[in-house]
Design brief:
alpha/beta, 9-stranded mixed beta sheet, two-stranded antiparallel sheet, Phosphatase, Phosphatase_SCO2771, 9 helices
């Protein structure tokens, strides 16, 4: 079983805060304001690519901007329409604390877990480290629907995609390469296989992002995830009570920059070294 969650260590938080700002995982991020606002409008207009598998209430643009300022830390002024935008580093840290506490609870309970990412190029290392720590704590990590495939909509037209696992972390692949996705259909396939299986195994926790997280939250599973400032759906899902924790961060920086964040997350879960 996992160790008890460690007490607050202000020095660790301060060091990670400096690192997040330096690497622009939070603070003055590279995600442009005009892209953020365009994606908020897509969510408001029920664009399927920006719902992430969640059935969300009708949000206005003003409500969405206010929510994103409150939960993510983007600029709240609607007159700010171009240039850089921000993620509040303290909101990132608070959400990492909450995610770590939930992961630690899963470890102590020996819960069954699913991990999945739509950003395998940058975030896979985070998920793999969490997977290893949870397995060591006695959690079962499920890997259903491996090889399930479909024709996914892409900017270049429908293309073949299939679910693959890197150890116990699900992602989409094509031609042997892991691919970015917002699509909820793969997680729906994962959950459908679990429902149809005779084992009766069902995840107590999903750790994911993009449509993998949204579809799990929509299915009523306790879900924690990561989201960038241009991906409002998971934050809206948290506001509506369908997502337990959404950690705001830039999900497109160099993979190595996430290592201190991962160490902090595992320490908050009581699973660090």
């Amino acid at each position: 079983m996992g160790k008890a969650t460690r007490p607050d260590r202000p020095g660790d938080r301060a060091r990670l805060r400096d690192h997040l700002l330096k690497t622009r995982i939070a603070g003055d991020v590279a995600t442009p304001r005009e892209g953020n606002l365009a994606n908020y409008r897509k969510m408001v207009n029920k664009d399927p690519g920006y719902q992430f598998g969640l059935t969300l209430r009708d949000w206005t643009f003003a409500e969405t901007l206010e929510m994103m300022a409150r939960l993510c830390g983007v600029g709240a002024d609607p007159r700010h329409t171009r240039g850089p935008d921000t993620i509040d580093v303290d909101l990132t840290l608070d959400a990492l604390d909450a995610m770590g506490e939930r992961i630690g609870l899963a470890a102590r309970r020996g819960e069954t877990v699913i991990l999945a990412t739509g950003h395998p190029d940058t975030l896979m290392g985070v998920y793999r480290a969490v997977e290893d720590a949870l397995r060591a704590a006695g959690c079962a990590v499920l890997t259903p629907a491996a090889g399930w495939s479909y024709r996914a909509g892409t900017p270049f037209g429908p293309q073949h995609r299939e679910i693959v696992y890197t150890s116990g972390v699900a992602a989409l692949a094509a031609d042997g390469t892991l691919r970015h996705t917002h699509d909820p259909h793969p997680m729906r396939a994962v959950l459908r296989e679990l429902r149809d299986a005779a084992t009766g195994r069902w995840p107590g926790l999903v750790i994911a992002d993009h449509g993998w997280a949204g579809a799990a939250g929509e299915a009523g599973i306790d879900t924690v995830g990561f989201a960038d400032s241009n991906d409002p759906a998971l934050f809206a899902g948290q506001a509506e009570g369908k997502i337990a924790v959404t950690v705001p961060l830039d999900d497109g920086v160099h993979p190595g920059h996430y290592r201190p964040l991962t160490a902090y997350l595992l320490d908050r879960a009581g699973l660090g070294g």
